[in-house]
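If it is no trouble, can you show me the amino acids of a protein and the tokens describing how it folds?
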Amino acid sequence: MSVERGVGRGPLYLQVKQALAELVGQDGYAPGARFVTEREVCERFGVSTTTAVRALNELVAERLLVRRQGSGTFVADSPVPVGVSASPPVPPRDHTVACILQTGGGGHVGKLLAGLEAALSEHGYRMYLKYSDNSAEREARAIREALAANVSGIVLYSAEGATDPAVFDEVRRQGVPIVLVDRYRPDVPTDVVMPDNLAIGYEVTERLIALGHTRIATLWHETDATSVRDRLAGHLKALRDHQIPVRPELNVLRRYEAGVVERLLGLTEPPTVLLCGNGYALAQAIEDLVALGLHVPGDIDVAGMDDAGPFDILPLTAVAARLPSRELGEQAGELLRRRMTSGEPYRDVQHVVLPIQVRTRDGAPGYLQVVAAD
């Protein structure tokens, strides 16, 4: 089916947009009336969902139409006449996606970005990167900059702590879809794609117990994020399931700080393994153990709850979880793309949880030993 007679020349979405704009004010489309749906636009003009959504989005931006959450699209109460610009004008969203990340380091982030690009580039979306340096204030600024740039969507690897919920309200009001990766916000209803963080804490701990460890100390790079809280919950559950007492001096959500390793090793019953929340905590632990003249493994062992860090931690660890980094990016990109073309970016938000892998040193083709210099 071709575009209806009377639609002018030019890009197809502009032809559809013009034809839809001419319907406003005609019979059945008075101010406040329900407007044609995305599906009806596709059927009437024989165009793709992407074209229909873009045409409708531009009419919403120009204030001829309004969207009501959960209800649909309606003719604005005071629609701007065809050919007259709204004031102030709102530029149409382009095919750009903002990727706002807490840090740019490590192979985990690189693989995540590769997955995002694979999911979005084939559909004509461009990406630009912004880093928050794990600061809630910088994250809020980056989100507002993305909105000012009229991006079509946002992928957010959120900073630790609570970014002002008003920022997310602003994103929602503007109808820009946002997908969080790695962690969710309990106070903000958004789509999320994340690894099974509860399983990470549980399965890594269970493997350590199978290796004979019962005194396991946890060390964390972050403490104020749902990902680490879920991992701690999994860790504690594994201890309880194996009737191992939870010890406040070992099994806590403790931010890594100078001297913590030395204090742990000075306990009457010191840990036999340091279980690190991510690769950054593990890198610091290795550095401190070497400074204390200890061998890893030998004097003490280390384990990791993920491979997000400054280098590949897996060869150093007795047990470590491997994150589905590329899959996180691919699924976040695909979910965001569907939201950007649906016209209903916040309907029935989804929490997509991906399985993780856990490996042990014995199952690796090789491993590293850290030995203090004489």
